[in-house]
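Incident review: delayed structure delivery

Summary: a single-chain prediction request sat in the queue longer than the usual turnaround. Root cause was a stuck worker, restarted by the on-call engineer. No data loss occurred. The affected request and its eventual output are reproduced below so the record is complete for anyone auditing the incident later.

Affected input:
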Amino acid sequence: MLSETEAVLRLILATLLGGALGLERELSDKPAGLRTHMLVAEGAALFMVGSMLLTQGYSRPDAGGLIDPSRIGSTIVTGVGFLGGGMILRARDRVYGLTTAAGIWVAAAIGMLVGAGYYLIAIVGTLIGIVTVVLFRRLEERLSVAKESGQQAMGRASDDD
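Output delivered after worker restart:
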């Protein structure tokens, strides 16, 4: 049985974990940063906790009336996908905002997991998300520099022909 005190703790944890993920986006000066990720995680947790509390309060198994809390969760995925889609921009031959949109989606999943009481998975998911956006950005930068160097070398070789 989920108590209101436990629900409040879940909301706080979801908000903090979403903020941990959003902090990197904020430091990278991206459009969806700290507050956006915090609000998305909190909102997802609110929907999940609310769904669970409604299930507890209104399900009547003895009368065959069960409410499925995952139904609200599935609508979060759709809604957040729409929100993330609005952050993706295309300019010339480049697409911007994909990582930010994916981060928003992950923040929603973190919020849902915390809302459902799966703290360890939410914390590990947050850590994986932070590692992904921080460490792999450095790898992408190195690959980009290597790619540009290779293209410049090929350009010089073709100039000699």
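Verification: The chain has a mean pLDDT of 80.
Action items: add queue-age alerting; document worker restart procedure.
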